[in-house]
Design goal:
Elements (H helix, E strand, L loop, with lengths): L3 H7 L1 H13 L4 E6 L5 E6 L2 E3 L2 E3 L7 H8 L2 E6 L10 E10 L3 H15 L12 E13 L4 E7 L5 E5 L1
Antiparallel strand pairs: 1-2, 1-5, 3-4, 4-7, 5-6, 6-7, 7-8, 8-9
Length: 163
Amino acid sequence: MTTWDEFAAAAPTIAEVFRRRHAATGNLCMLGTLRADGFPRISPVEPRFFEGELWVGGMPDTRKFDDLKRDPRCTLHTATVDTRVSEGDAKIWGTVHDVRDPALHQRFAEALYAESGFDLRGREFDWFPRVDVHGGSSIAVGDGHLDITVWRAGGTEEVVRKH
């Protein structure tokens, strides 16, 4: 398992691009999952960083969470609206794990309320998926080239330059 903080320490370039693009879109990312029939599904989500971890929250009882309960593999991609990708782009992939910890849920709810005004305080969470990061990549556009930075668990960031 690689926590968000461990990932950010091992892959600082990718983590910085991911955080920056995540913030620039109002916390919006696209979540990739596998449907029951094996086809991919893309869903918008607003993942949150909390206590050194990355959490995938959203409306309960949705298909994307059914997908993750059946097969915990996923990818998160920063929402890209610029076809030139001038501000960069990032994605991470890994697995999610449901964390059953009512005290953690309430700390998260308090922080969410303070940050956004969305009130989950006092509610019980039936599904609280934490992302265990297995890998990630980011791109940056430079003077006539594209740098692709890739990281896999246990390794270091590697950069491939395309001209």
